[in-house]
Amino acid sequence: MTSELDAGSLTTPLVSVSITAYNSERWLARALDSVLKQQTTFPIEIVIGDDCSQDGTVDIAHSYQERYPTIIKVFDRPRNVGIQRNYYETLGRCRGKFIAWLDADDYWTDPDKLAIQVGVLESDASISVCCHYVRWVSVDGTIKRDRYPSLPSGRYGLEEILRHAFIPTASAVFRNGAQRNLPQWYFDIAPTTDWPVWVLSALSGDIVLVDRVMADYWLTPDSACWSKGDLYWYGMDARFYEHVESVLPAQWHRLVRKEKGKRYEAIAYSTRKQGDYVASREAAFKAFRAPFLRDSLGSKTKALVAALVREMEWRLKGRRAAG
After folding, report:
1. What confidence score (pLDDT) does residue 229 get?
2. For residue range 110-145, what is the model confidence (pLDDT) as tens digits?
3. Distance (Å, rounded) from C-alpha 312 to C-alpha 304?
4. In angstroms, how far apart are the furthest CA atoms of the chain?
5. What does the alpha-carbon distance between residue 50 and residue 242 come to, in Å, rounded to a whole number?
6. Which end of the chain is least crowded, N or C, by CB within 10 Å?
7. Which domains does the chain have, with CATH numbers?
8. In angstroms, rounded to a whole number, what is the distance separating the alpha carbons of residues 271 and 16?
């Protein structure tokens, strides 16, 4: 940790590091150490929001606060408020011009991370978010992916982030302010926590993906949405697309509906394969209605016909068995 980081936090920070935690006693110290190792020439603060953990997370947070009282602030709650509210309130307590987002079970691997990203953001006011590549690492230390996302480095805009939530939270540094415009439906789409923030940020600027791996995304059992299968992810995406139009100009609605239709098509296919023909038909109807009529007409018609035929066959088979 540089002396500038330590002394600088006596003033208004340039960067606030938002760390959210829940039952994270195994991981929090590592995350904090990775922040404190950052080589900066500007002041930072670390804002820890704990969601009423039942283990030793709060004790660890306060022990670090005692060691770095000018840098670390801890907000622990007497009751659980849920992942969305914890994110929202912790981000809301950040005072910096920029916010760096870090979950307690992830950590940064490059001591120059903040310096590099702040340099990018300060160099161009039209950039709203700076992110980078991360590794996916399992709890036994096995590297599952060397580099994520699978996009080339460079500059992206609203269209790309609407199609795919490609920004790993542990990689993002963004301009403070976008999170203040989160709509009420944000609290109804858990566990999708960061995608709406990136969309709101992209409404006012671009996203730069830096060609450098600077964090590890830790695949823990408690946070392993990644292990729940494609159907789970399709459902998460569909819920996001059901709501996001409300924060977008009208010219983006068609893209959103087209993407929503693709997700419902995928849900219809996956549930049909699982033998849930009612759910398949319901998803296929949503896929058919979601986009403009001429968008994806062939694929959505095929999905609907397949779902109806398979449900009919299933019902006829059941009647024969009953007779």
Report:
1. 78
2. 999 999 999 999 999 999 999 999 999 988 888 999
3. 12
4. 82
5. 30
6. C
7. 3-225 (3.90.550.10), 230-322 (1.25.40)
8. 43
